[in-house]
Amino acid sequence: MTGPLQVADRVWVSTVTGTRHEPSRHRDDLRRAATLPEWRIREFLSGRGLLRQLLTAIRPELADAEIARDRRGKPALRGHPGIGVSISHTPGATAAGLALGRDLGVDVQRPAPAVTASFTRRLLPAHAPRLAALPPARAAEEVAWVWTAQEACVKAAGAGLAGRPWTIGIPPGARTGRWGGYRWISLRDHSSVPLSCAFTDPDDHEKAGPPA
């Protein structure tokens, strides 16, 4: 998948693999990149560049907006609180998302060669035996898919790891579900690298947020 792919009403995701993606040359992005460690600069500008490409395709009038951090630490378009944006990186892949009138989280994760039994039990306690029966590489891939959905949920909520993503119950092989006021989707039919997004569910607008 490259994108933009519309995954739900008013929600789009783009992703790119490899190293040929054009990094952002926006003045604000370059200014922020100058304060980062050398190893983070290319990753940072790649994510900002992909998000600006997505904005250009969907809402071109916002493509030049400043990308800042909101009070929760999430990426946001300064002066446009109704626009949800998210960026994610993994070795060899970058993802970005855009949602109109919704909070949004996107996560992409390159699978590890294998995962330990203890990690699998922590992430998927009810399903660890099922994963243990799979070949190591296949189990690791499935763990990555689950983790992207869990991470996308807490990113959408602005909680990050403090939101304890590993406690969100997502069964292996699942493609969509709900968590509190959020809906999540794993883009299994569109991405060769595990990639999921989560966004405010309009059907649960009144309770948007993590479960109590």
Could you give the topology of this structure?
Layout: E1 5-8, E2 11-17, H1 27-33, H2 38-58, E3 67-69, E4 75-77, E5 83-90, E6 93-100, E7 104-108, H3 117-123, H4 128-132, H5 136-156, E8 176-179, E9 182-186, E10 195-200
Antiparallel strand pairs: 1-2, 2-6, 3-4, 5-6, 7-10, 8-9, 9-10
In words, what does this structure look like?
The protein has 212 residues and is α+β, with helices and mostly antiparallel strands. It is built from five helices and ten strands, in the order ββααβββββαααβββ. A four-stranded antiparallel beta sheet has the order 1-2-6-5, with helices on one face. A four-stranded antiparallel beta sheet has the order 7-10-9-8. It has a two-stranded antiparallel sheet with strand order 3-4. Strand 9 and strand 10 form a beta hairpin. The protein starts with a strand and ends in a 12-residue tail after the last strand. The model has no long low-confidence stretch (mean pLDDT 90).
Helical content (DSSP H or I, runs of 4+) = 25-40%
What's the helix-strand series? EEHHEEEEEHHHEEE
Low-confidence stretches: none
SS elements, strand count = 10
- Rough shape? globular
The fraction of residues in strands falls at 25-35%
Number of helix segments?
A: 5
Alpha-beta content class: alpha+beta
Radius of gyration: 17 Å
- Integer average pLDDT: 90
Q: Within the largest sheet, what's the order of strands?
A: 1-2-6-5
Distance between the termini: 35 Å
What profile does the largest beta sheet have?
4 strands, antiparallel
